[in-house]
Automatic annotation (TrEMBL):
Residues 19-355 form the Glycoside hydrolase family 29 N-terminal domain. Its EC number is 3.2.1.51. Residues 366-447 form the Alpha-L-fucosidase C-terminal domain. Belongs to the glycosyl hydrolase 29 family. This is Alpha-L-fucosidase. The lineage of its organism: Eukaryota, Metazoa, Chordata, Craniata, Vertebrata. It is an enzyme of class 3 (hydrolase).
Length: 451
């Protein structure tokens, strides 16, 4: 049978249409895990985590306040309530005091932008179940019907996106004391009323309403992913949602999933691998080493200082990870000055050294014990050597780089090339200038045209 031009055109059209549809993912881990992580996430490297909720009102101990008070009945939390609040005071009584009266999303977004972060992840809902938006599935346990009487997710999101930063949302699957969830738990998760009536409808609406670039799932450790129908949600998210081409997810989608399934790997909180992982990963780390939420009783000695933050971030990026640094706003909606100081300090360091962080890849050697420890990152034929303490000497030897006659060595922040000489086998010795003062106590050498 003769093939007509119309038939050929129709075939080419169908082929083009099929190509434009892209890959369709099925609701199983083998298919979902094959989805490439969108490039933007690997390029940005550094983000800000924001833990904010009703727990910011008592601001004592940690963001797990309700659980430690009423769940495990930790003595320090019980005594705190006995000493400071009248008998019969309930956790829900804290919600009207979550005023956020000083919350200015533009000011908060300015601080995050000044930190050099390229994405921000806000707690939409922590394990207490209180949503920072007007969820129709939350009764009045949300920031629109209670507390601030405003949509915190929308307000901060608009300010973040105005600055061309990516916006992500943290969402806890489970809720400590939700009676529907507790009923499902009592059944051994054989019933799924909480998932069908609360967790999943809320999550679908969250995506459709706010179109997050990233979903940071949590609260996954009690029930299996089959209870949550995580694979069904992720298949929709990757195939048909309004963010299907850009959205990034983590690995907390059910008991036993983390470090195995999902998008990038969080694994445990503050995950710190000892070697280069074979999968994209992220370390979440709080400035306050004790709590993710704001604590009124925090001490300066319990906070990470700026050099510690920079060293931690450099370590993570050198090993191919992203660094998500957490701060907890006050219930008034303020980033505490000590947190702001840390964030602006990171941003000041990144203004000079950001080329060694953003858009980089792990090099064939990630670290070297030179006179002082150094970390390597790379872009094409450029290698960055990040020195995380002052070597206190002019000559500095590196054994890992393979130089050529075209190699150029510079100190980021200084335009003049540095004098250097090759070693006999591999490496080089470079003449360092007087290193400029930086509160971060870290500097970067840029090696152009090395193998």
């Amino acid at each position: 049978m003769e093939v007509t031009r119309i038939q050929i055109s129709l075939f080419l059209c169908l082929l083009s249409c099929a190509s434009s549809l892209g890959t369709r993912y099925t609701p199983d881990w083998a298919s979902l895990d094959s989805r490439p992580i969108p490039d933007w996430y690997d390029d940005v490297k550094f983000g800000i985590f924001v833990h904010w909720g009703v727990f910011s009102v008592p601001a004592f101990g940690s963001e797990w306040f309700w659980w430690y008070w009423k769940g495990s009945q930790s003595p320090s939390y019980v005594q705190f309530m006995i000493k400071n609040y009248p008998p019969g005071f309930s956790y829900t009584d804290f919600a009207p005091q979550f005023h956020a009266q000083f919350f200015d999303p533009e000011e908060m977004a300015d601080i995050f932008e000044a930190s050099g972060a390229k994405y921000v992840v806000l707690t939409n809902k922590h394990h207490e179940g209180f949503t920072n938006w007007g969820s129709p599935y939350s009764w009045n346990w949300n920031s629109v019907d209670n507390g601030p009487h405003r949509d915190l997710v929308a307000d901060l999101g608009a300010a973040i996106r105005k600055r061309s930063l990516h916006y992500g949302l943290y969402n806890s699957l489970y809720e400590w004391f939700n009676p529907i969830y507790l009923s499902d738990k009592q059944s051994g998760f054989k019933t799924r009323d909480y998932v069908e009536k609360k967790a999943m409808p809320e999550l679908y609406e969250l995506v459709n309403r706010y179109k997050p670039d990233l979903i940071w799932s949590d609260g996954d450790w009690e029930a299996p992913d089959t209870y949550w129908n995580s694979t069904g949600f992720l298949a929709w998210l990757y195939n048909d949602s309004p963010v299907k081409d850009v959205v990034v997810t983590n690995d907390r989608w059910g008991k036993g999933c983390y470090c195995k399934h999902g998008g990038y790997y969080n694994c445990a909180d503050k995950f710190t691998p000892g070697e280069l992982p074979n999968h994209k990963w992220e370390k979440c780390q709080a400035v306050d080493k004790i709590s993710w939420g704001y604590r009124r009783n925090m001490k300066l000695s319990e906070l990470m200082d700026l050099p510690s933050i920079i060293k931690d971030m450099v370590y993570v990026v050198a090993l191919g990870g992203n660094y998500l640094l957490n701060v907890g706003p006050t219930s008034d909606g303020i980033i505490a000055p000590v947190f702001e100081e840390r964030l602006r300090g990171v941003g000041a360091w990144l203004k000079v050294n950001g080329d060694a962080i953003y858009g980089t890849k792990p090099w064939r050697v990630q670290a070297e014990n030179a006179t002082v420890p150094v970390w390597y990152t790379s872009k094409s034929s450029t290698v960055y050597v990040i020195i995380t303490s002052n070597p206190m000497q002019n000559s500095f030897t590196l054994s890992a780089p393979k130089t050529s006659s075209n190699t150029v060595v510079t100190l980021l922040g200084s335009p003049e090339p540095l004098k250097w000489a090759p070693l006999k086998t591999s490496g080089l010795i470079v003449l360092l200038p007087d290193l400029p003062f930086t509160p971060a106590d870290a500097w970067t050498l840029k090696l152009d045209k090395v193998a």
